[in-house]
Amino acid sequence: MFIISTGRSRTLRPTIPLSASTTMTIAFAKYHGLGNDFILIDNRHASEPLLTPAEAIAWCDRHFGIGADGVIFALPGQADHDYTMRIFNSDGSEPEMCGNGIRCLARFLATLAGRDTTEVTYRIHTLAGTITPQLRADGQVTVNMGAPRLLAAEIPTTLAAPEAKVIQQPLTVAEQTWAITAVSMGNPHCIIFVPDVEQIPLAEFGPQFEHHPAFPQRTNTEFIQVVRPDYLRMRVWERGAGATLACGTGACAAVVAGAIAGVSAAAATVELPGGNLEIVWDETSQQVYMTGPATPVFSGKTFPSSHN
Ligand code: ZDP
Fold it and tell me: Given Cys at both, which of 8, 52, 116, 279 links 110, Cβ 3.0 to 4.6 Å?
């Protein structure tokens, strides 16, 4: 265990080795989806994550740990699901879903099964419901992300009556009034269309949206520049992880927001700092499909804590 401190105390330093309680080593793999990077853990033989949130914080530390935006656990399936996915953000909080992460999880599971070059579809249980990633022969992963949820109570946000949608609603943050569109992809997103995403001081404004009382579960925040109706440029401040190079659920939420706000198309390329995602919101089935890469970086195992 270690203690988070904002003072000058040396307790800020997370400890390595990374497993607080035992002398066992834990195997992991490091993946990224467009630079949104994750530690993946083969957790198929235990129903609870092998790490505590505090250990996940230590593993994600980019100087004292392995370094990642989050930790993803591949757990046994439930009912008619192949597997269950759980995630801890780099601050130890647990989000409902993770779009880039589930592409990485699908590739990780296929590799564990020795079938990483074949086409395969998994049914994954998440806190946001059933999500189905499909590995394609060209190496990309297409994920049926389910239907977006648009009612204020579902986000959740207090920016409108519980049964109303939040489309270009005013919200004052950092002494400016912004037009907010709110979309849940299982996790909360606050989308703001701006003329130029490069002009946004993300590290300054991001936390003010993340912790705004209008979002009782905090929120992910996406600033979107509509370059063309089918091409969006995005910068994201993630709940629990800060500025990241990409956010899959955020890219899906942005395309849905653009469509309901009437500023862009229901199918679009989303350009993120780490690369592009292709998003299609099928307005008949209501399902959102995301296509993008999932890249293995390395695998390893932690040292036993006797080295501590
Ligand atoms: O909702 C949250 O707390 C997010 N930080 C979860 C991670 C989202 C992610 N970046 C994605 O790609 O959807 C992994």
Answer: 116
- Catalytic: which of 60, 98, 104, 190? 98
CA distance 183 to 152: 9
In this structure, the answer to whether residues 259 and 234 fall within a common structural domain is: yes
> What length is written for the chain?
308
What's the domain count of the chain?
Answer: 2
pTM, to two decimals: 0.91
Residue 86 phi/psi, 5-degree rounding, is -125, 155
- Answer yes or no: are the C-beta atoms of 131 and 117 closer than 8 Å: no
Structure confidence by residue, pLDDT tens digits, 240-284 = 999 999 999 999 999 999 999 999 999 999 999 999 999 999 989
Shortest-distance Cα residue to atom 7 of ligand 1 = 98
Based on the fold, state whether residues 286 and 299 are members of the same structural domain: no
CA distance 150 to 184: 6
CATH code for position 127: 3.10.310.10
On whether residue 99 sits in a domain, the answer given is yes
Annotated catalytic residue within 60, 190, 247, 252: 247
Indicate if 98 belongs to the active site.
yes
In this structure, are 201 and 219 located in the same domain?
A: yes
Q: Is 247 a catalytic residue?
A: yes
Residues 181 and 90 in one domain: no
